[in-house]
């Protein structure tokens, strides 16, 4: 079987959807965060596949940058979650609703 | 391939980038004893960047092989970002010291956020746009949670980060799909692809553009992608809220105009079904929710959602009048909001998290100048002439009528009528409500100067809107 | 067509007219508590006087010019200039705005002077004069503007000042609420004005009066756009000039100080709508549907408000409803194409109604002091507590009587000429139904005004306590009354019709402004009736109706004072309906207290009730609050709820794009 562009794209879409589902359903802030990372990496897969398809380095370069961005987000995110834990002694996302309405 | 770098095209960004490092170093060396060095350095950097921006106004051209533009459009927005940042930074020490969060990183983060915004407004490539957006967003996440010891501030930043990162996923996916269809992330290539294609939304392009749009709508806090903004604005330190409600929103609109403001593109897209409905929902929901608030901060947060809705009309109109109206609107809106939030934190006396409207009671007699300025901000937000807020609306709404969006404009004008209720309430409380045991406001010269400056700008840009409107128009023309 | 041919002359004086009150406002406002109350009044009045002098100079300058060239302009600077669109801060004085500035500065000056006496001793005097000057400034901007944008600035400004001055005594919550109501209802009107402005801008590419009107004459007669524009503008006029259904705020606005009622709610601001319609006469004439609406609403308001005026006991409320009714007359005139007659009535009405309000202020002032002295807690504004004041307050009585004769339309007095001109124009243009309504309303006006005079000045002073009685007001208040009394008599002599051997100068004066409209309407509707015999007959009929009204009032309140009581018991329910102003406030109560349970009741009421709109305005506020209260609950505070809704929205947008 030849693995075509579409195979990569479908896989990427699948991973992306799993990520979205994780964000919407999990309660643990760190797991939600990991799900977001999954979404970003799914997109990276698409980028690489397209870059290969077009024979263009632009997509691959984009992936480098998006990895950097994701790493920065993780760094900030984990720091915020640590602070959250200091306040609430939990990282359950449902306990975070001081502000509403 | 021979790429001309053309460094002047990113002159402002270079100053800001160097400034970030300078502030970091300055604070490292002197910060233990006082923050004034970091503070002064930041202000100097902002002024320098502003000078570069004005000196190179619209003349720098494209740089880095069309990746960035130093055109009039970029200059216009960059100046707006710098002005807003300057005003916010200028009076921040008062707030930071009072709340014991006087750390040098604050100034550095603001500079980084501005740096990100300047790249958004001058992006010629989706990569640059994406990096600018993320640079801005990540520093804003930290700024929102800058009040580490406060649970509300922490919640604010967590919500912002989770939802922001979630939508980064969508945005990035959108860019990937566009890249997949066009083979390039350069805006010029994408535009020519769309203009030359018989079915512009075919292939991956439809989903790609939709996701890109969604990412932008999120940053603009347009309904139904607004949910994060009231909570985030509410919990963030107030100067940060003032900054967030004005500058990043402008940056998102700047990017939207860069990407979508081209007749060749906007004609083929289903704006009537998306932007039209989103604008109507945004205006109405923002307005009605603002009515029900008892906290000035949340009220202003919802009000800022409403204003994003008004701005959407200009975007949906897709004509030159609408775009230049948006530029004028965003520029002046920044001053109104910074002014209003500034006074709000001066008046607030119950501490963070309790920005009650009732704190404004008797401000009319306690501090007539502040009350007058607050009245100006409220009236300008309502859109009463001859204040600047009126002309922004006039232009954007006229553009809507011109583009045939009559019913949308009717909805918007009706909502303007509703908005009187809550803007007026502030004035009624300031001048009419009696309350026991209110003290005079503390003396805070920087805050007073900021508020007076904002008030003057709004008044002057209302009485003499011509030059700014001309500038806005030229800037829009430089886009094409 | 005709309009374009008017040549304009530059005048460097015009800016001074609004500048003086602005300067007065600035000085009093900046000095604030440091300013002495006496100096504040003198400064504010002086500013108005200087403004009046300049207005008079400008007027005579205009008078010295050829009729077709009477137009003075001054451009201060270009407000904005974008593309082919530009708006200037510039002023236009033509015969129409010349009359307006004379009224605003002249009557305004007298009211400022009167205020010095009326507001003496009030702790907020400086604030009062600051706001009064600010009002005059915005009012002058409104009438002097040469484009809709600047007019709108004045329009909003006077609304704001009206709001501040109605709620002047803020410690009183009712009054603060009345001010807010005025502001909000006005905003509904402004909604119309704003939309109209966008439409004008899009349709004509300009907001300049001259350009817009010139381009409008190229539009087809009865075109949809022009009809929409004029109807929206009229919505704005209804809000500002208290016409059905947006009149509700004006009676409540009587909560403000009486001189404010005289200036803002009788002589100047409330007439802004009439001025705006007259200014846009070309547009209206091109839209026959709008003209019919204007005439219809005007006539309906004229008679409707007059019937409410019949049964009120609060002296200011009677005058308030009378004002609403008289404004209806002015719109009626505009609606039948008699713009000049409408403005003529606006002018005479400014004289006699300002006088009536100031006279009532003088009475209230005296009653108030009397009540204070005797320790009584009766309402100083209730006419049932008055009577016999003729003896104690002769100057107030005589001036008040002259104004009443003027408003009743007694020949020789100013109101007669202007009202008669309107009725004749309605008749001669073939709007017989409008004429009948107008004539009946005239009779009702004569009745309720003389009822007021008889109840307050005649008979015995009701609360007569040993030796105590109210005293005449000081000269600073009575002298302005006398000046206005003179104007109430002679003010109409500029418009004596040809049948009575006069020259009808005012019609000729206005002719250049309305010539374009007359041309259009003759083109499309032909000439009206021209017959001296019929005109005389119509005139005599309306005089007879007015005399009948006075006679009946005499019969009821002097001769056989038991008749009103009998009638009240005979037509009990009807009287109750009218006295209670058609129960609007009660409906409002029902609508606010238990909005949901009483919804059906509320709707039922509204069908039977002409005055539904007050209920609707307040009901709308309730509904808005209700929706807002529930809508905010969408913001649950749970971040995953947000993510879910937003994610679903992403899906929707993607689907829209893919399809």
Question: Could you explain the architecture of this structure?
Answer:
- Chain A has one domain: Orthogonal Bundle (Helix Hairpins).
- Chain A contains 3 helices and no strands.
- Chain A has helices at 5-25, 29-54, 58-88.
- In chain A, α1 (5-25) runs antiparallel to α2 and α2 (29-54) packs antiparallel against α3 (58-88).
- Chain A starts with a helix and ends in a 13-residue tail after the last helix.
- The mean pLDDT of chain A is 91.
- By secondary structure, chain B is mainly alpha-helical.
- Chain B has a domain at 271-480.
- Chain B has helices at 11-30, 36-55, 72-98, 105-122, 126-144, 151-182, 187-196, 205-220, 228-235, 238-260, 263-266, 271-291, 296-317, 320-347, 363-366, 368-382, 388-402, 406-432, 445-463, 466-477, and strands spanning 61-63, 68-70.
- A two-stranded antiparallel ribbon of chain B has the order 1-2.
- In chain B, α1 (11-30) runs antiparallel to α2, α10 packs antiparallel against α14 (320-347) and α16 (368-382) packs across α19 (445-463).
- Chain C has a 3-stranded mixed sheet.
- Chain C is globular and about 90 Å long.
- Chains in contact: A-B, A-C, B-C.
- At the B-C interface, α6, α8, α9, α12 and α14 of B face β2, α5, α6, α27 and α28 of C.
Number of strands of chain C: 3
Helices of chain B, by number, come to 20
How many helical stretches of chain C? 28
Percent helix of chain B: over 70%
SSE-based structural type of chain B: mainly alpha
User: How much beta of chain B, percentage-wise?
Assistant: under 5%
Q: How far is the N terminus from the C terminus of chain C?
A: 52 Å
Q: Averaged pLDDT of chain C, please?
A: 81
EC number (chain B): 7.1.1.-
Protein name (chain B): NADH-quinone oxidoreductase subunit N
GO biological process, one term (chain B): ATP synthesis coupled electron transport
Subcellular location (chain B): Cell membrane; Endomembrane system; Membrane
Short note summarizing the structure:
With 101 residues, chain A is mainly α. Chain A contains three helices and no strands. Chain B has helices spanning 11-30, 36-55, 72-98, 105-122, 126-144, 151-182, 187-196, 205-220, 228-235, 238-260, 263-266, 271-291, 296-317, 320-347, 363-366, 368-382, 388-402, 406-432, 445-463, 466-477; strands at 61-63, 68-70.
